[in-house]
Amino acid sequence: MLQAHPVPEPVPVPPVAATVVAPPAEAEPRRRPHRRRAATATPLPQRSARQIERLLHEVFGLQDLRPGQQEVIARVLAGQSTLAIMPTGAGKSLCYQLPALMLPGCTLVVSPLIALMKDQCEKLRAHGLAAVEFNSSLDAEALAAAEAALADGSARIVLVTPERLADPDFLALVRRCRIALVVVDEAHCIVEWGHDFRPAFLEIGAALRALGQPPLLALTATAPPETAAEIARLLGIARSGTVDAGIWRGNLHYAVVPLTEADDKLQALQDTLQRCEEPGIVYTATVRAAEEVHAALAAQGLSVGLYHGKLRAAERHAAQDAFMEGRTRVMVATNAFGMGIDKADLRFVVHYQMPAGLDAYYQESGRAGRDGLPARCVLLYQRRDRSVQHFFLGGRAYTQAELARVLAALSPDTPTDLAQLQQDTGLPRARIAALLALLLQARHCRKARAAEGRAGWLAATAPRGAPTLEALVQAEQARRQEKQRKLQSMVDYAESGACRWQVLQEALEGERRAEGCGQCDNCARMLRLAAPDVLVPAMAGGAPPLRH
């Protein structure tokens, strides 16, 4: 029995208008903020347009820019910091790769995952772009070569993890270079991961200040209005600097299969997989569920791989390679798999357990159908699955006393490292790192180099207007409440009888499309009720309907 266990040049493309993300309303009942369209788009100089067209053809082998790309590229070339929200498959990477060939100096790309970074670096080199990476997987020789390429200016694109960017020695090296543009890829990770297990994401703002605030491009496929506003605030992007291409992708067909018993879930998954013999992903919320589902499908003779964060790096790479090369048809994975995966022919994404919110769900389900052909996105919904996400949200909240204890242990003159802070405060090391990230973000401390080359921190006099410790705790409490709201929105989506796309757009864009999509399971059901004699397929192309 399987159960949940918490444990390129512009060929005339109409410019996409920039949008503004408004802060959440205070009044009750709670109102969703709307994205407002900016008055004007940034014009693209004719000379740049000709150069873009040439590079687009000769380097990237493309004919046209896609909707949204021209607007973002024009802003980047004009030196305007931008948050670009573009759906999966819309070509976000080109928005910095193409300008990197035109801007004087190098482009610094902050990437969340080493595997994603390696994939991006290999593809850039395949296009003839001089790219280097900095992360913990490099040996001494590779690190020295990357540092030399950065120092002599031959590297046009430099990919780094947020942890490496936060390192004072690396920042000192980068400060000696000409940085034309800083890119934060998968920028939603700042909000989703920065306050929890990847506090280095919260240090990006401090690193940008140390580099003299170069122009910034933040890229993401999903950012509800509140998330977009938080990203912009943390990175110092103006309210008018958001380009939103929208989330609508007409080739994605959404459906929910409601289930009451855990024993029925595996059968429902097998039924869904039998309806599509092409490649796809099955997502679970926990490692244990991924292993159980993988074992069950493998026992049925399916071509299935397994990917989660607790596997050894060699095992993860082998599983990913087999899937990308078509030697494995189905990948069973946690959300550790998929970010930046460029496999255009995925015909389905099934969620065996529901994710933490609709933004995460859209991000993961949107990996299907990147080639523009019909693909299905199925959620196997059992109400008790939300207890898994409640477990993940159940960590102890940060307190003002903890922030004060860490701050009191810092000296304004002598750098203190994590080991010493752990001894002085009695707090776990991971918690101290998260508290330091909050204090650094509010400029109550700054990074330095401690004894024996280890990273350290110094107390700092916060500038006028900086958040107080009380304000930091209140903001943290608000973030926790927002996570609870997102989880409830995921439940509401699963139990809604409305058009799935309408629910997604209202949650992620603050606006609901006027009419249903006509193709999701709920739209198909309503059409059948309106015209019972007409056969309504679950998706275009005559695919058989999903079992409900």
TrEMBL record:
<feature type="domain" description="Helicase C-terminal">
    <location>
        <begin position="268"/>
        <end position="419"/>
    </location>
</feature>
<dbReference type="Pfam" id="PF16124">
    <property type="entry name" value="RecQ_Zn_bind"/>
</dbReference>
<dbReference type="GO" id="GO:0030894">
    <property type="term" value="C:replisome"/>
</dbReference>
<dbReference type="Pfam" id="PF00270">
    <property type="entry name" value="DEAD"/>
</dbReference>
<dbReference type="GO" id="GO:0046872">
    <property type="term" value="F:metal ion binding"/>
</dbReference>
<keyword id="KW-0347">Helicase</keyword>
<dbReference type="GO" id="GO:0016787">
    <property type="term" value="F:hydrolase activity"/>
</dbReference>
<feature type="domain" description="Helicase ATP-binding">
    <location>
        <begin position="73"/>
        <end position="241"/>
    </location>
</feature>
<dbReference type="GO" id="GO:0003677">
    <property type="term" value="F:DNA binding"/>
</dbReference>
<keyword id="KW-0479">Metal-binding</keyword>
<keyword id="KW-0413">Isomerase</keyword>
<dbReference type="InterPro" id="IPR004589">
    <property type="entry name" value="DNA_helicase_ATP-dep_RecQ"/>
</dbReference>
<keyword id="KW-0067">ATP-binding</keyword>
<dbReference type="InterPro" id="IPR002464">
    <property type="entry name" value="DNA/RNA_helicase_DEAH_CS"/>
</dbReference>
<dbReference type="GO" id="GO:0009378">
    <property type="term" value="F:four-way junction helicase activity"/>
</dbReference>
<dbReference type="GO" id="GO:0006281">
    <property type="term" value="P:DNA repair"/>
</dbReference>
<dbReference type="InterPro" id="IPR001650">
    <property type="entry name" value="Helicase_C-like"/>
</dbReference>
<keyword id="KW-0238">DNA-binding</keyword>
<dbReference type="InterPro" id="IPR011545">
    <property type="entry name" value="DEAD/DEAH_box_helicase_dom"/>
</dbReference>
<dbReference type="InterPro" id="IPR027417">
    <property type="entry name" value="P-loop_NTPase"/>
</dbReference>
<dbReference type="GO" id="GO:0006310">
    <property type="term" value="P:DNA recombination"/>
</dbReference>
<dbReference type="GO" id="GO:0005737">
    <property type="term" value="C:cytoplasm"/>
</dbReference>
<comment type="similarity">
    <text>Belongs to the helicase family. RecQ subfamily.</text>
</comment>
<feature type="region of interest" description="Disordered">
    <location>
        <begin position="22"/>
        <end position="45"/>
    </location>
</feature>
<protein>
    <recommendedName>
        <fullName>ATP-dependent DNA helicase RecQ</fullName>
        <ecNumber>5.6.2.4</ecNumber>
    </recommendedName>
</protein>
<dbReference type="InterPro" id="IPR032284">
    <property type="entry name" value="RecQ_Zn-bd"/>
</dbReference>
<keyword id="KW-0378">Hydrolase</keyword>
<dbReference type="GO" id="GO:0043590">
    <property type="term" value="C:bacterial nucleoid"/>
</dbReference>
<keyword id="KW-0547">Nucleotide-binding</keyword>
<dbReference type="Pfam" id="PF00271">
    <property type="entry name" value="Helicase_C"/>
</dbReference>
<dbReference type="InterPro" id="IPR014001">
    <property type="entry name" value="Helicase_ATP-bd"/>
</dbReference>
<dbReference type="GO" id="GO:0043138">
    <property type="term" value="F:3'-5' DNA helicase activity"/>
</dbReference>
<dbReference type="GO" id="GO:0005524">
    <property type="term" value="F:ATP binding"/>
</dbReference>
